[in-house]
Amino acid sequence: MIALLARDLRLAVRAGGGFGLGLAFFLIVTVLVPFGVGPEAAILRAIAPGILWVSALLACLLSLDRIFALDHEDGSLDLLATAPLPMEGVAFVKAAAHWLTTGLPLVMAAPALGVLLHLPQAGYGWLLVSLALGTPALSVIGTFGAALTVGIKRGGLLLSLLVLPLYVPTLIFGAEVARRGAEGLPVQTPLLMLAGISLGAVALLPFASAAVLRINLR
Amino acid sequence: MSIWEYANPVKFIRTTDRLLPWLWGVAIACLGAGLIWGFFFTPDDFRQGSTVKIIYLHVPAALMAINAWLMMLVASLIWIVRRHHVSALAARAAAPVGAVMTVIALATGAIWGQPMWGTWWAWDPRLTSFLILFLFYLGYMALWEAIENDDTAADLTSILCLVGSVFALLSRYAVLFWNQGLHQGASLSMDAEENVADVFWYPLLVCIAGFVALFVALVFLRTQTEIRARRTRALRLRERMA
């Protein structure tokens, strides 16, 4: 499992483009928003947590089809399927690698982008916490979507149609934590719900992803 | 004699052929009677006027939109466990019907909401979760369309249906937490103290029965179509091979 994780990380960093793209996309979406809604600080301050969450989610979505597509093309997914490592483990490692290369950088970059959107002082900590708790769920759910569409040519649009509805609960609770944090309200309830969704998804969805992968490789 | 006999496509088509005329009859009779009764022979509500009568379309459609997804869930489970093709095809056949019911519920709700709430749309929990349900239907149907191999498509969509059900339920409670509602609470439950008045209740029951019959008839018909389409494809393939 560790070897696979190391391999995926190396591939993501070295094999051109994939690594920084999600971050760049995050930056661009966040920068576009003020052009759309106007530069008034009061408006931006109110919507900053939601904007950051939505654009982090979109940046996450953008890199999903890379999780299995390349491995499927060059046949290494078939090798992984016949390896002693169970398919559930493969799905879990793939999700972990996706989180380390996409989710974690997004979490790190989010406060910097918060400055651009006049995020209130109190909001930075909770924004970090909510993204750090929520992005693993995004990665795991996304891995499930990527596994569903692995056999389909040009499945990118379909992938977003499948995955985005599944992202709704995570987005609601994550953005709620960030918003309440920014406004100085108590965050405990949405925080617990977000953690629950994340942990539940991490624990259960690799099984679904593995089942789907097995069907697709049949 | 067990229920699994109907998993045989030939038997399924023969039985449903016999049932379909009755189902259509019940659907047309109930919907005709219920709607005419509801629209012309019930009093106007003293506050809402005649707009209240949209309830005869709105409530049954909303009910069937949810039940269609439940039916797909059960059919998907049967497909995963027992691998009866009719079951997978029935789930596929129910999806567009359910999606249309969702649209009917949302549209009639908007038409009623405009004069009553003063807005076509509000981000109310019930409205929002219905919109999300509609997105789930779209994804489900798109996945069926996208995959060429029938068995793979059936497998993948049924797993999507299972996972989607969990997330749809999660979303339901998430939006409940996210925003306070404008929509009224449940007013048709059997055990509630305060329900819709009987004058409106009886024609509504008839309409619900009509919608159920309509849904079952449509699903039977569409499943038959799917079975026949698949058989045609198999025959064509065999001819080309020969």
UniProtKB/TrEMBL annotation, chain A:
GO MF annotation list? heme transmembrane transporter activity
* Keywords associated with the record: Cell inner membrane, Cell membrane, Cytochrome c-type biogenesis, Membrane, Transmembrane, Transmembrane helix, Transport
User: Which cellular components does GO assign to this protein?
Assistant: plasma membrane
- Major localization listed first in the record, in broad terms: membrane
> Looking at the keywords, is Nucleotide-binding present?
no
Q: Where in the cell is it found?
A: Cell inner membrane
Q: Name one GO biological process term.
A: cytochrome c biosynthetic process
Specify whether Nucleotide-binding is a keyword of the entry: no
Where exactly are the transmembrane stretches of this chain?
Answer: 12-37, 43-64, 96-119, 125-150, 157-178, 190-213
Q: How does it sit in the membrane?
A: Multi-pass membrane protein
Q: Which family does it belong to?
A: Belongs to the CcmB/CycW/HelB family.
NCBIfam families xrefs: ccmB (TIGR01190)
Write out the function statement from the record.
Required for the export of heme to the periplasm for the biogenesis of c-type cytochromes.
Could you tell me what this protein is called? Heme exporter protein B
- Species for this entry: Citreimonas salinaria
Q: What is the lineage of its organism?
A: Bacteria, Pseudomonadati, Pseudomonadota, Alphaproteobacteria, Rhodobacterales
TrEMBL record, chain B:
Q: What is its main location?
A: membrane
Q: Where in the cell is it found?
A: Cell inner membrane; Membrane
UniProt topology in membrane: Multi-pass membrane protein
GO annotation (BP), single? cytochrome complex assembly
- Record keywords, A-Z: Cell inner membrane, Cell membrane, Cytochrome c-type biogenesis, Membrane, Transmembrane, Transmembrane helix, Transport
TM regions (residue ranges): 21-42, 54-81, 93-115, 127-147, 159-179, 199-221
One Gene Ontology term of the molecular function aspect: heme transmembrane transporter activity
User: What is one GO cellular-component annotation here?
Assistant: plasma membrane
Pfam families tied to this protein? Cytochrom_C_asm
Q: Which domain of life is it from?
A: Bacteria
Q: Does this entry carry the keyword Transmembrane helix?
A: yes
Cleavable signal peptide: none
User: Where is each Cytochrome c assembly protein domain found?
Assistant: 5-183
What function does this protein fulfil?
Answer: Required for the export of heme to the periplasm for the biogenesis of c-type cytochromes.
Similarity annotation = Belongs to the CcmC/CycZ/HelC family.
What is this protein identified as?
Answer: Heme exporter protein C
The species this protein belongs to is Citreimonas salinaria
Q: What is the lineage of its organism?
A: Bacteria, Pseudomonadati, Pseudomonadota, Alphaproteobacteria, Rhodobacterales
